[in-house]
Write a structure and sequence with these properties.
Strand order of the largest sheet: 1-2-3-4-8-6
Helix content: 10-25%
Largest sheet: 6 strands, antiparallel
Number of helices: 3
Strand content: 35-45%
Oligomer: single chain
Number of strands: 17
Distance between the termini: 58 Å
Length: about 300
């Protein structure tokens, strides 16, 4: 076995099954994961004559993920040869990671690895936010970048540096209800309520508010709801939509939409809102689901989101 075949291999992390299998050259993102396949081309020329001596077409499968209650995130690139010819064959790749913005690289693994149609060089990296962990309320974006070069025994030196950045990752310690820092991807999350789920009266009210009264926040639109965290403003929204003087039938509570915890609420928004008396347990438990949605997705003040009624 040759020395090049003995070069270190890195076991790739499995990528999500929704990662696009076509070389679209774009990121597909949810709140905690990003994945995409990007095309790349390598052309080798004779430095004296300028003649092309080899070519390689390859793909980069890129995958990044964060954790909602940790202040670091991971990034992986896999280089996959599609075709090669001439002096591009038998090449190897190695690299490292860089981080721009509020972050630093804390671990970088991208040793020299042979690339062929059966061997895929892998680079794996961990980044950590550099925002302060106290006082509470800090946030900042960081963007990791994988960099690599190709080498070959037939060449005098390595290629120029090639690179692929991740989407920007936002880390914070500003979410109400937790003291832990965490990081999210640039994706607008959606809260889902089902009409055949545990809160059918709540779901039907929101559906009516979105469809009949044309209120914002509906799935498939860009009329987003934005979170409101100020306690007094939330109380003002609730007092306008569901004043204490409003009669509540037995077993019922007043449900308002848009939610009092949004800037589109009855007092802080345009003035358009919907209210309905619904089962008190559904209203209470459905409100708890909204609170958990905010916490799980690290939704901060003025972060956008949608509500999907199924």
């Amino acid at each position: 076995m040759s020395a090049s075949e003995l070069r270190a291999a890195v076991d790739a992390w499995p990528t999500p099954n929704w990662c696009d299998d076509g070389a679209r050259g774009k990121w597909y993102v949810n709140r905690f994961k990003a994945c995409g396949i990007f095309p790349g081309d390598l052309t080798i020329t004779n430095p004296r004559t300028g003649a092309v001596t080899g070519r390689m077409h390859y793909l980069v499968r890129a995958y990044a993920y964060s954790v909602r209650d940790q202040k670091k995130w991971a990034y992986q690139v896999e280089l996959m040869e599609v075709t090669s010819s001439g002096s591009a064959r038998g090449s190897s790749a190695n690299g490292a990671a860089k981080c721009a913005g509020k972050c630093k690289v804390i671990e970088s693994t991208f040793p020299s690895q042979l690339i062929s149609q059966s061997k895929e060089p892998v680079g794996q990296f961990f980044q950590e936010t550099t925002i302060k962990t106290s006082p509470k309320g800090q946030k900042g974006e960081g963007q990791a970048k994988a960099v690599w070069r190709f080498t070959n025994p037939l060449w005098a030196g390595p290629t120029n540096e090639l690179s692929l950045p991740t989407p920007p990752v936002r880390c914070d310690n500003a979410v109400p209800g937790t003291s832990k820092a965490g990081c999210v991807m640039p994706y607008i999350p959606e809260l889902v309520y089902a009409k055949n789920g545990p809160y059918p009266e709540l779901a039907r009210h929101i559906e009516y508010a979105q469809d009949t009264k044309n209120l914002p926040g509906k799935h498939g639109t860009t009329r987003y709801l934005t979170r409101l965290t100020d306690k007094e403003k939330k109380k003002a929204n609730n007092r306008k939509a569901c004043p204490p003087s409003l009669e509540r039938p037995p077993g019922k509570q007043c449900d308002e939409y848009p939610f009092q915890s949004t800037w589109q609420g009855a007092a802080t928004g345009s003035g358009d809102f919907s209210r309905r008396m619904i089962d008190k347990d559904q209203n209470r438990l459905g409100g708890g689901t909204l609170k958990n949605f905010y916490l799980f997705n690290r939704i901060l003040e003025k972060d956008r989101f949608l509500v999907w009624i199924k």
